Amino acid sequence: MSIQIFILSKLMEDNNYPYKLKKQLSEPIPLDQLGGLTESKLYYHFDSLAKQGLIETVEIVKEEHRPDKQIFTITAKGREELPKKIYKLFENADKISDMVVGLASIKYVDREKVVEILEKKLKKIKDHWEQITNFEKQIQIDKEHEKFAEFMSGYVSTRTEHTIYWLEELIKRIKQREI
Question: Which residues form the Transcription regulator PadR N-terminal domain (predicted)?
């Protein structure tokens, strides 16, 4: 879904074609390689978006000794669907790294709605963490498993506190329009 959001967001700015988007993703940092985005995957998503009626070919550029270039534009339906896809991405994200494309496209959605989604996510994490810590207090751990339990407890608490901190920081920065 994030590839489709990326494509739709780029088409909101200007008409474009798959190979050019792939090049934009690879410079200066090879985000395409880091994300495992191949040219065939990109073309697949362009085709999928076209079949959904979210984008359409606006021009075909013919060049000598090169394949034809299909230039795409976003449709009215695509403009309507983009925010829905972005909200869904935030709702389904398990961690902030899953939200990167949504954050990069935040100008196409209502920030307050994104904040609401993230605050619900934060509350769920905090409630779950509270349940775990209350449960942890009730468990008796024998000597044999004490070190293992300490390790796991430290790992889970550090990770959860880290997640809570950065989610709170993200919410704050969205509210302050820094992101």
Answer: 7-82
Statement to judge: residues 15 and 87 lie in one domain: yes
Q: Per the structure block, which two tokens stand in for 73? A: 């534009």
Domain tally, the chain = 2
* Cα end-to-end span (Å), the chain: 21
Residue partners of 96: CB distance under 8 A and separation at least 6: 166, 167, 170
Task: Give the pLDDT of the chain (179 residues) as one tens digit per residue.
Answer: 688 998 999 999 999 988 888 777 766 555 555 456 677 888 899 999 999 999 999 999 888 888 888 999 999 999 999 999 999 999 999 999 899 889 999 999 999 999 999 999 999 999 999 988 887 777 788 888 889 988 988 999 999 999 999 999 999 999 999 99
Residues 6 and 90 in one domain: yes
Q: What is the pTM of this model?
A: 0.86
**CATH code where residue 34 lies:** 1.10.10.10
Rg over CA atoms, the chain: 22
81 plus 118 within the same structural domain: no
CA 142, CA 124: separation in Å to the nearest integer? 31
Q: Answer yes or no: is 105 within a domain.
A: no
